[in-house]
Amino acid sequence: xxxxxxxxxxxxxxxxxxxxxxxxxxxxxxxxxxxxxxxxxxxxxxxxxxxxxxxxxxxxxxxxxxxxxxxxxxxxxxxxxxxxxxxxxxxxxxxxxxxxxxxxxxxxxxxxx
Length: 113
What we know:
There is one protein chain. The protein is mostly beta strands. The protein has one domain (4-93). The chain has one helix at 4-11; strands at 18-24, 30-36, 41-42, 49-50, 53-66, 69-81, 91-93. Strands 1, 2, 5, 6 and 7 form a five-stranded mixed β-sheet that branches. The protein has a two-stranded antiparallel sheet with strand order 3-4. The longest helix has 8 residues, at 4-11. It is elongated. The two termini are 24 Å apart. Mean pLDDT is 82; it is low at 108-113.
């Protein structure tokens, strides 16, 4: 489907730090498989930088309307450790800026179809 880097910027212009790995089109719905490429994150509670990954899992974001087509995002996210003993949070999940928010199935400003 062409250059994925250029397509990522067209389909998800606000997604900072996201890598588009694959686009497929089963049954007329475009499926975008992506992951974060940010090497480190800060704990949302204590702001300590972490590079230690606890685990990975997949999120399926609600269908986005793009150019009259439905686009589903399958996003691999990582859970990081917070190693600060004083912090009450042991782990936290990365968010892709401009694409995901905590507990949401759709990106900022996107309504489910």
